[in-house]
């Protein structure tokens, strides 16, 4: 979201960042520091101190990008550091807390029919709740051999965090390898996970050497290598989020499966916006059958990749200015309710001109 911070309309918004984590001195940290009007390092603060800082500064809307994730300080939100408090981006679910007023979503990942399961009021952005940076650098594409991949054969890719893997989905992947001779599965995993996955592959009758493990690389290099794969296999029930956008932006199509939860529907929405809504499935059987069909039909897969390249180039997935206008409209609607003395309620931001709602 750093690009979003950089492009916010400074004639209407004053942006303060409260940093609660350690300073890693990374380029992204420095970029965030430079992108906001005020950067406050609260790593050493007690939550009550951060609450007091926010109140003294007169923060109108406090946006939490942590939720119930490691390192959060939800006590700051519990202390009512701002009159409007919003859950955003980092945690695809409800806080369950009465001190969170809104959750930013979109109609696909969180339909209003599911709002009763959320303690927050739902804010619908018309395209996607996820901001994406169109300016990310991409290194020159490496060769297959440089990445430990075979020069020939189909490459399935599953670059989600290994924590998202489950036995049922992994079993599908092993059946796909068995059904596509000469294929490999390209993964990112730590040493312990690698050993476990190799063992499980062998237990399912698949040689462990058909699993290829990619080492961690700087983002420009990672984006460059993704396009070497032929098809991305998504996880379930926690689907690819930023990882899906990484694949789509470099022209790699996904096969995904959706469920009822927010986390299970994010990749599906990103694919709809990228012209690949027909690759969004709703059952394990449909997911497996579609992946196998695409892997066995080079012509069909080539047509899908061409469609994706065209849609990403001209579509809204990476249109940060369009996204900025939508989320700023949401913030202004929140403030309108506050200043009018009205309680938080569901908010639907109008689609941009020429866009079909939910399309």
CATH topology of the largest domain: Rossmann fold
The number of distinct helices, counting runs of at least 4 residues, comes to 12
What is the CA–CA distance across the termini? Answer: 23 Å
Q: Structural class per helix/strand content?
A: alpha/beta
Unreliable stretches (pLDDT < 50, length at least 5) are: 354-359
Mean pLDDT: 96
Number of strands: 13
The main sheet comes to:
6 strands, parallel
Your description of this structure?
With 359 residues, this protein is of the alpha/beta class. The protein folds into 2 domains: 2-134 and 319-348, Rossmann fold (3-Layer(aba) Sandwich), CATH 3.40.50; 145-314, Rossmann fold. It contains 12 helices and 13 strands. The chain has helices spanning 2-7, 27-35, 47-57, 74-78, 167-179, 191-203, 219-226, 242-249, 266-273, 284-296, 298-314, 320-339; strands at 16-19, 38-41, 61-64, 84-87, 102-105, 121-124, 155-158, 184-187, 211-213, 231-233, 254-257, 280-281, 347-348. α5 packs parallel to α10. The longest helix has 20 residues, at 320-339. The model is unreliable at 354-359 (pLDDT under 50).
For this entry, give a set of tags.
single chain, 359 residues, Rossmann fold, 12 helices, alpha/beta, 6-stranded parallel beta sheet, 5-stranded parallel beta sheet, disordered C terminus
């Amino acid at each position: 979201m750093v690009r979003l911070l950089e492009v916010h309309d400074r004639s209407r918004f004053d942006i303060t960042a409260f940093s609660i984590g350690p300073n890693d001195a990374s380029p992204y940290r420095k970029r965030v520091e430079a992108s906001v009007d005020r950067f406050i390092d609260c790593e050493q603060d007690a939550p009550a101190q951060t609450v007091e800082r926010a109140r003294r500064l007169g923060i109108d809307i406090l946006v939490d990008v942590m939720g119930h994730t490691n390192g959060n300080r939800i006590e700051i939100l519990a202390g009512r550091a701002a009159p409007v408090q919003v859950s955003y981006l980092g945690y695809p679910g409800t806080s369950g807390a009465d001190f969170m007023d809104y959750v930013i979503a979109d109609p696909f990942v969180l339909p209003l029919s599911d709002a009763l399961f959320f303690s927050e009021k739902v804010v619908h952005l018309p395209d996607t709740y996820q901001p994406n940076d169109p300016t990310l650098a991409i290194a020159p594409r490496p060769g297959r051999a440089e990445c430990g991949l075979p020069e020939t054969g189909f490459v399935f890719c599953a670059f989600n965090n290994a924590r998202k893997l489950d036995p049922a989905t992994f079993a599908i992947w092993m059946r796909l390898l068995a059904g596509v001779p000469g294929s490999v599965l390209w993964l990112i995993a730590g040493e312990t996970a690698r050993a476990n996955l190799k063992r499980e592959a062998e237990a399912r009758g698949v040689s462990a050497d058909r699993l290829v493990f990619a080492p961690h690389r700087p983002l420009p290099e990672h984006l460059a290598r993704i396009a070497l794969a032929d098809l991305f296999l998504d996880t379930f029930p926690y689907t690819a989020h930023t990882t899906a956008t990484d694949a789509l932006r470099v022209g790699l199509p996904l096969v995904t499966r959706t469920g009822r939860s927010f986390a299970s529907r994010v990749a599906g929405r990103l694919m709809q916006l990228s012209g690949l809504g027909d690759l969004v499935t709703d059952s394990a059987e449909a997911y497996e059958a579609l992946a196998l069909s695409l892997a066995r039909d080079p012509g069909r897969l080539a047509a899908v990749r061409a469609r994706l390249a065209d849609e990403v180039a001209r579509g809204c997935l990476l249109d940060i200015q369009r996204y900025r206008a939508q989320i700023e409209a949401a913030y202004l609607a929140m403030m309108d309710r506050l200043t009018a003395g009205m309680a938080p309620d569901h908010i639907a931001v109008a689609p941009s001109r020429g866009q079909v709602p939910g399309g």
